Amino acid sequence: MLFNSLDFAIFFPIVFALYWLVARNLTLRNVLILVASYTFYGWWDWRFLFLIAVSTLVDFYVGKKMHKIENKKKRKQLLFVSLLVNLGFLVYFKYTNFFIESFVDSFRLFGKELEVSTLNIILPVGISFYTFQTLSYTIDIYRKQLKPTNDIIAFSAFVSFFPQLVAGPIERASHLLPQFYKTYTFNYKLVKSGLLLMAFGLFKKMVIADRAALYVNQVYNNVDDYGGVGYIYATVLFAFQIYCDFSGYSDIAIGLGRTMGFDLMKNFDSPYISKSLTEFWRRWHISLSTWFRDYLYIPLGGSKKGKYRTYANLFIVFVVSGLWHGAAMTFIIWGAIHGIILMIEKGTFTFRKRLFNKIGLDKNNFSNHLFFGFIIFTIVCFGWVFFRANSLSDSLQIVSGFFSDFNLGDMFKKETYLIGFKPNEFKVITIAILMLFAFEYFHKKHNSIKFLNNQSTLFRWSFYLSIVILIMLFGIYGDRNIQEFIYFQF
């Protein structure tokens, strides 16, 4: 079920009304959340509910058993059961065909053709997200940082919580699970702010991301028909598409949780204003980057085993992050690019600090922010080429086209940057992106929710209504562009 669908527009008000009717009865409330969450996920394909149920039951009983045992070897064996089940599902459904194709390609390098076909495997929506969420529970119990729950209903609701089930934020059990033990009273201001955040998320998704997809898909699905400038426009638009698509989903998820009294973690923090790639990853998909930090980077040794080991750990984490996003060489290269740049940033930190100090780039002013922001945005966009391209050959053609097919004069030709767009559509998305940046800047400076609460009732409701009208007027609907959220495929 999609947040931007008619099905969900009917589903959520029913769940919302029933939720607040039974909110004071903790058990009944959690049962309702569980049923709603399984209905939400099963709407896509009910057969894959079996995977969530098995992961839930295995981790629930492993966690209880592990907590009672002090023997380290037996605790490791129990943790291995959790890892085997959860990662086993993930590897089978997501990577089996990738491994088969890689195996065949390796023989092809030596002139051998193997008659091996891939399997007909459907990737369950959101499996990468809820797998990492439930694994954090058993790992934290193994580390003795968390006590297991005895409430199977609350734990099942935690694993399958429908607002963030299929695309995050990836919550930790230590943060979200205790919220299923609390009763909440209806809070008008909290519900209102949640609904406003949902509306803002839908605006980002339907007005910006889905409209940008019109052009991005046209270029990236037909790379032979375009040149350097067309590639650049499409890549920059994809940067905004993926940001508005994914952060829009996170906004809707956080807003949904808030309308029911739940607090979900912040997942994005204006990443495109970052002045370094390190800062970018503190602002982009925060729940995933912190998960990899706590459950992979630090266990590998982090930065405590010398600089070369630190560089290796960074590189490993980002290659694994690339593979987490997708079973293709393009994703691995995308992760490797980020890993290499982060290694360079870390290795040249002292040198860069001295150099920037000498030439005046260390000052905290607008021009320096703009300079570094442009460089990091360019690097991130270069990486997005591999992330978005349909194949490795397509990505290499696009990168090559940036330099070989680039003609500065083409940038000012309407036919170059309006392919796939009507002129008015181009104006709409340009204005919408500028509105987004203005809103995010204002929100960081003044907190838009507090600002709105201090305004008159007429002003507030005029603002709310204007967002709804903008979504209805400029949001993409219909067969022309039925768009799932990008991160559903991961």
Automatic annotation (TrEMBL):
It is a multi-pass membrane protein. Its main location: membrane. The keyword Cell membrane applies. InterPro entries: Ac/AlaTfrase_AlgI/DltB (IPR024194), AlgI (IPR028362), MB_O-acyltransferase (IPR051085), MBOAT_fam (IPR004299). It holds the Pfam family MBOAT. The chain crosses the membrane at residues 5-23, 43-62, 78-96, 116-137, 149-166, 186-203, 331-349, 370-387, 426-442, 458-477. Keywords: Acyltransferase, Cell membrane, Membrane, Transferase, Transmembrane, Transmembrane helix. It comes from the Bacteria. Belongs to the membrane-bound acyltransferase family. PANTHER family: ACYLTRANSFERASE (PTHR13285), PROTEIN-CYSTEINE N-PALMITOYLTRANSFERASE RASP (PTHR13285:SF18). This is MBOAT family protein.
